[in-house]
């Protein structure tokens, strides 16, 4: 993911170290900002494992902080190598004295503006500040899930949230060309590209659902069209997920946000499938979802004015509290499975 042979990664107990030239630091930090499972990182000064070298590094760190207007500090030290000649308390005191002798800063152990940290491991490291990572679990530690990716705001956020829980994400997108535009399909590909920065190797499978949707429009009761379309998408997604060994489906549904997302209608849409359906946004309001979409970089793509197939042929008065048994009877009468299988055979794929 770092994509540069000059950048070295080294692992020790409880820490990863990345060694890179200063001019590569911006690239390294950009990559780290997109990796789930990392609680945070900091640029460090590595030095010889001697008291004089460590104290000198602390003074340089103090000078750097002073350039940025920091007036108060404290020192924290951790020694995993207990053979170091100073204990943690002595190291903190000696380093703080050296800083205040050379830099216009004072020690404040209760409410410092910044903390200079010392770690004595296989080498000695001195750093301050740091940046917060995404946290969560490393992608790939929680299995694989298939995201139903529309062109809207919600589903990309749902995919990102599940990547943050360690899940490898692939995506499936349904379009209904020529009733939806090529730009609408490209929007989904672009969204998958952003998500691929957080879930490396994300694949998007694009299905032409025009025949399925036209059959529903022609033969289903108008007020049930949206629910039945969602049921067909769930069936197609489950078949695709089984083929690529995904363990679940992921959607961007939020409880009662729209008519198809009432608790009864959610029961209808998943009534014919066996895979679990994860809905990480289920209790979030729209403002929270939009905020997260802006944070991860999908919002400006999602608001491009190209309709996806879910917005076509929307009934004026959709069913609000659907019954799963009724939904299944209506669905089975349409005999959609051959059309779904045809759509699956003709899928397009892109890899991010």
TrEMBL record:
PROSITE patterns, A to Z: THUMP (PS51165)
Primary localization class, coarse: cytoplasm
Functional pathway: Cofactor biosynthesis; thiamine diphosphate biosynthesis
One GO CC term, this protein: cytosol
Protein name (Swiss-Prot/TrEMBL): Probable tRNA sulfurtransferase
Keywords, alphabetical: ATP-binding, Cytoplasm, Nucleotide-binding, RNA-binding, Thiamine biosynthesis, Transferase, tRNA-binding
Subcellular localization, as worded in the UniProt entry: Cytoplasm
Reaction catalyzed: [ThiI sulfur-carrier protein]-S-sulfanyl-L-cysteine + a uridine in tRNA + 2 reduced [2Fe-2S]-[ferredoxin] + ATP + H(+) = [ThiI sulfur-carrier protein]-L-cysteine + a 4-thiouridine in tRNA + 2 oxidized [2Fe-2S]-[ferredoxin] + AMP + diphosphate; [ThiS sulfur-carrier protein]-C-terminal Gly-Gly-AMP + S-sulfanyl-L-cysteinyl-[cysteine desulfurase] + AH2 = [ThiS sulfur-carrier protein]-C-terminal-Gly-aminoethanethioate + L-cysteinyl-[cysteine desulfurase] + A + AMP + 2 H(+)
Domain of life according to the entry: Bacteria
InterPro entries to which the protein is assigned, alphabetical: Rossmann-like_a/b/a_fold, ThiI_AANH, ThiI_N, THUMP_dom, THUMP_ThiI, tRNA_STrfase, tRNA_sulfurtransferase_ThiI
Keyword ATP-binding: yes
GO biological process: thiamine biosynthetic process; thiamine diphosphate biosynthetic process; thiazole biosynthetic process; tRNA 4-thiouridine biosynthesis
Function per UniProt: Catalyzes the ATP-dependent transfer of a sulfur to tRNA to produce 4-thiouridine in position 8 of tRNAs, which functions as a near-UV photosensor. Also catalyzes the transfer of sulfur to the sulfur carrier protein ThiS, forming ThiS-thiocarboxylate. This is a step in the synthesis of thiazole, in the thiamine biosynthesis pathway. The sulfur is donated as persulfide by IscS.
Enzyme Commission designation: 2.8.1.4
Protein family: Belongs to the ThiI family.
């Amino acid at each position: 993911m770092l994509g540069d042979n000059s950048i070295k990664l080294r692992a020790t107990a409880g820490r990863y170290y990345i060694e890179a030239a200063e001019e590569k630091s911006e690239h390294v930090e950009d990559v780290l900002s997109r990796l789930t499972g990392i609680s945070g990182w900091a640029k460090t000064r590595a030095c010889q494992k001697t008291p004089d070298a460590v104290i000198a590094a602390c003074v340089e760190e103090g000078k750097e902080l002073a350039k940025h207007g920091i007036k108060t500090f404290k020192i924290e030290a951790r020694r995993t190598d207990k053979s170091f000649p100073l204990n943690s308390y002595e190291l903190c005191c000696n380093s703080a004295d050296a800083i205040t002798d050379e830099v216009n800063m004072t020690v404040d152990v209760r409410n410092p503006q910044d903390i200079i940290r010392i770690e004595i491991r296989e080498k000695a490291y001195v750093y301050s500040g740091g940046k917060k990572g995404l946290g969560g679990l490393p992608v790939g530690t929680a299995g694989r899930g298939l995201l139903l990716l529309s062109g809207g705001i919600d589903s990309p956020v749902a995919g990102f949230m599940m990547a943050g829980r360690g899940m490898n994400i692939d995506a499936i997108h349904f379009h209904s060309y020529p009733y939806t535009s090529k730009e609408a399909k490209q929007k989904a590909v672009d969204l998958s590209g952003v998500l691929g920065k957080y879930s490396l190797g994300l694949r998007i499978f694009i299905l032409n659902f025009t025949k399925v949707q036209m059959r529903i429009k022609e033969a289903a009761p108008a007020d049930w069209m949206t629910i039945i379309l969602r049921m067909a998408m769930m069936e197609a997604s489950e078949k695709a997920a089984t083929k690529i060994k995904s363990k679940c489906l992921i959607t961007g549904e939020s409880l009662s946000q729209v008519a198809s997302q009432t608790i009864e209608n959610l029961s209808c849409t998943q009534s014919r499938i066996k895979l679990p359906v994860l809905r990480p946004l289920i209790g979030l309001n729209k403002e929270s979802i939009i905020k997260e979409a802006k944070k991860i970089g999908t919002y400006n793509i999602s608001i491009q004015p190209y309709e996806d197939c879910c917005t076509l042929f929307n009934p004026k008065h959709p069913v609000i509290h659907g019954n799963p048994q009724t939904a299944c009877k209506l669905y089975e009468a349409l005999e959609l499975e051959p059309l779904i299988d045809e759509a699956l055979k003709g899928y397009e794929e892109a890899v991010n």
